[in-house]
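How a chain folds remains the central question behind the approach discussed here. For one protein, we set the task of working out the structure tokens from the amino acid sequence alone. The sequence in question and its structure tokens are set out directly beneath this paragraph.

_____
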Amino acid sequence: MLVVQGRSLGRKEPLFPDVSVPLPPDVERGSSGITLRALLARVVQNEVAAFDARQAERSVLRALTGKELAAGVARGKVAAGESDVPRVIVEPDAAVATACQAFEDGLFLVFLDGVEQKALDAQVWPKAESRLLLVRLALLAGG
């Protein structure tokens, strides 16, 4: 599994918890490479699927355990499903296109196992234990 990490310049804490993304079997075994574009597409599609699953889970009313209830009270919000937030439909192909455009526009950097990747169509060779670091570049404000 590829481990995806997110950081932002100027912030110590990560943008999101590490995410594991399965690689195609031939890539994971090292017998084949993959373009950075295809690798990013796989990461984005994995996250769109996870987002859809979280939305579906929120729409179901469920009973909370005592532990979940206590954790919610400590957080300041107890939720048992049936969210009032309308469901958002995310098109995976559009999300992939947006991510690729953001990379080309220089809004984030990509490092695979510590090596910066500069071209979407370049061949990369991730391994099962590889780490993909996405670094969001913060814009400067003020003057």
Q: What stands out?
A: The helical segments are 25-28, 36-58, 66-75, 92-104. The radius of gyration is 18 Å. Residues 7 and 14 are 5 Å apart (CA to CA).
